[in-house]
Write a structure and sequence with these properties.
The protein has 108 residues and is mainly alpha-helical. It is built from two helices and no strands. The protein has one domain.
Amino acid sequence: MEPLLDDATVSSFLPPTRRIIMHIAVIAAISLIGGPLLGLYVFNAPRGEMLTLSLRTGLGWGLSFAFVAAFIYTAWLIRTAWKGYYKHVAARKMDEFYRAIEGEQTKD
């Protein structure tokens, strides 16, 4: 039995590199802007003395969001690649099936 992935690479099942970089930039921006804002909101820092503590805590929240988003995005990329692979395999099998049917019909 011949391999089903001989004419395709893994990168052919993933979104374009430019789109992946754009997604990563958006995730980082949302995490690093939204995290500190959430940190300020959650800890309701009074003006002055607690502001630095809240900003540090907010950056921690932002980095935590970034890590969680990175795991979710990686899982999405893996799922997208698997779906592309299975579509490729199904298309290959259908092509082989149609070639086999046409071969049987031409023998008659």
